[in-house]
Amino acid sequence: MKAWKIVYTAQAENDLRGIYEYIAYVLQEPGYAAGQSDRIMDTADTLEQLPEKYKLYEEEPWFSMGLRVLPVDNFLIFYLPVERKNTVAVIRIMYGGRDIGERLKSTDFTVPDEP
Asked: What CATH number should be reported for the domain holding residue 55?
């Protein structure tokens, strides 16, 4: 089985940076921030083998788009498997307690090209 490539949108990269900065600077836990960021990225890397393992996000219009959600601790990784590109696009990463629908409404779902 060929491994899929993992790519992050600019929004997902900003989300990850924001998570790190909040934990490191607001909560003043830089060690925990680094560990949380690593856990999120390591978990996203597992999508290389089974990108359709996790459930579709159940709300429309994202369900019809094929948006999937992968939980990591208190965070959610939203991603799209793009079979024709053999790519998994990490679209957003957010705290599970947020108003997810509102944040997804303002999300650009353009899949980035491979780095």
From this structure: 3.30.2310.20
